[in-house]
Amino acid sequence: MQVTIIGGGVIGLCSAYYLNKEGYQVTVIDRNNITGGCSFGNMGYISPSHFIPLASPGIIAQGVKWMMSSSSPFYIKPRLNLDLISWGMTFWRKSTAKNVEQNAPHLNNLLQLSRHLMNDFKNELPDSFDMTEKGCWLLYKSEKTGDHEKHLTEQARSFGLKSIICDAKEVQAKEPDVEVNVSGGVLYLDDCHLNPEKFMLALYNYLQNAGVKFWLNTEVTGFEKNNGKITTIITNKVNITCDELVIANGSWLGNISKMLGIKILMQPGKGYSIVYNDLEKNLKYPSILVDDRTAVTPINKWLRIGGTMEFSGHSDTILPKRVMAIYNAFKKYYPGMNLPEPDLTEAWFGYRPVSPDGMPYIGRHFRYSNLSYAGGHAMLGVSAAAGTGQLIKEIIGGEKATIDLTAFNPARFS
Ligand SMILES: Cc1cc2nc3c(=O)[nH]c(=O)nc-3n(C[C@H](O)[C@H](O)[C@H](O)COP(=O)(O)OP(=O)(O)OC[C@H]3O[C@@H](n4cnc5c(N)ncnc54)[C@H](O)[C@@H]3O)c2cc1C
User: Fold this and answer.
1) CB 3.0–4.6 Å: which of 54, 280, 327, 341 could bond 358 by disulfide?
2) Residue 192: CB within 6 Å of ligand 1?
3) Which residues touch 205 (CB under 8 Å, ≥6 apart)?
4) Do 402 and 394 touch, CB atoms closer than 8 A?
5) What digits encode the pLDDT tens for the residues 101-142?
């Protein structure tokens, strides 16, 4: 049987990986060339520690506070857009303790499944992607943030995740070469990290050799349907007949769904990153600078810093103040690194696919008998890609899914 996947980001490629291994003829369509989506310049964390959905208590109040500052890590461009309003109302409704209580166990299942499956990729992809398994810091400056993070370790422990709570001295002892200015940190030992562009290229090379067909620089513009089934995918280059369709086109999930008469709530959450190469001294551990919502990924002499969540639609404008805020946050936590100011023309940006309850869309959609969704992973696309890929293989094969899929139902807001 033939399966077509729209979207060659990390979710599309990991789905292709498991479907191809199962013996399906897989075609991937992407309007770019694999390097253009959110999956390329992100921080490369595989984070089982991130089991709290984005829609959670306190996020709205914090967001409103941050909106007042042009260099804060969060921004919504105010505009009269019906999709944004509908998404925002749902996000507001879902930012509750109940949402966290209901959905955190499901997100945890997906993240832990994915963390475990990353070993498949580590062992089977011929090209290295620098997967490094030493954990990830959540570092804080304020006592209030520290208390919150320490409290979260209890829930993490109940999910079987290992962590070490450290004071400032203990954090510094683990980074002996670089001054660290924090009040403390939690090191999550099950987390790991990789170089995302190397991972994407390694996957792409593997899949090409394994017989997956790619239509790159090819944009899906419509569909033909018959009898409750999608029969043809129309692109700007060819028309492709389809047995099974997986929609995995990231933050554009809502746009393409409209072509099928389906409502999927989705907003692009833009983030930036900057890279430093050939550093003489570098950090030993990746870290999230929690008070400033900034992330740091070191691999050998390479260092990436990233962050911000900007809801301004798919707008390719780079806001220099927000890129500088990432750099300034880094300097506050690691004053001894003396990194030069970033060249803003070199800053990367990507659109996180953000659903309004912080849960991905994974599963069949009732509107068509051969349609499945894989997307909406927000800041967890790399972390959850392997599990999503395996689940898509199980869904299409009619197998019992490894984890309960109810919370990921793509029709939950349709
Ligand atoms: C600064 C930053 C840091 C991040 N760090 C991490 C991290 O450390 N760990 C983590 O787990 N996640 C992280 N993320 C999130 C992660 O990058 C995303 O969740 C993930 O890349 C989403 O993957 P995707 O495959 O769903 O979408 P994408 O990578 O965006 O891929 C979607 C693809 O669909 C294609 N497409 C769209 N429309 C069409 C169409 N009509 N026809 C054909 N093709 C189409 C696009 O060209 C694109 O290639 C980060 C994000 C940002 C911005």
Assistant:
1) 54
2) no
3) 126, 127
4) yes
5) 999 999 999 999 999 999 999 999 999 999 999 999 999 999
